Predict the structure.
Amino acid sequence: MKTIYRITTLIIILTLSVSCERDKGDTPYLENRESTIFYNSTKGTLFVEDGAPNTFNITVGSTSLPKSNIPYTISVDPSSTAVEGVDFDIITSTEISAGNIVSSFTIEAYFDAAITDGKTAILNLTAEEGTNVGVVNKFTLELFKLCPFEALNTTSYVATVFAFGDEAPSYNLTLTPVSGSTNQWTVTSGWGPTFVSWATENSGYDNQYLYSGTITLNPDFSIAFVGDNSWATGGSGVFSPCTQVFTYTLSQALFSNSFTTDVILTPLN
């Protein structure tokens, strides 16, 4: 019985030793495969900040383990809104090194050219003859200008107003901070003191139905407008920390017909 036990134990140990050995069969397989390169993902986002590195790495993979370097070319698709040399540059080499199945290249974006609404760089992947390119051969990189925000530079604004497919009278207004709150302001008129008279073509409504309310700036730079009257049903919009411009859309229940009013608040110098 002891002999059988020892033999069984030896078999188990040998089995474990064999099963734990590293499988070296992948390397010849990868070396003999046809080379096809591809993007490892299809899109990304880069927020461009003043003074930051503003770089983004994009990975390119290969289906083979190359014995020599595989160069590839990145070209900007004509449908891109970002321009190479103006909005961004490719600052590292574009090749997969021998003995590797992945590579990456780096995009550097420029703060001065960036805009808060964003620009898009669509990057096409191509290769030299003898190297195939997979179906994932386009990468879309969104570039957004991002500015830090601590407080408004001014509380004096000019409002541009649009409704009914036309531009309503503009007006100046002051954002009055709400006591005890952060990034919250009251306004005496959300759409202007002459908006109703303009909409009805009746000057008797000047300085009536002003649509007073409170603007709240959220951490994600979205804004909410809450009207003071029941007919002033409020609205929402966005704030640009770089330009400090407020943009919002108001609904209303004052008029019998339904419509919305778009307002852009731009800082007064």
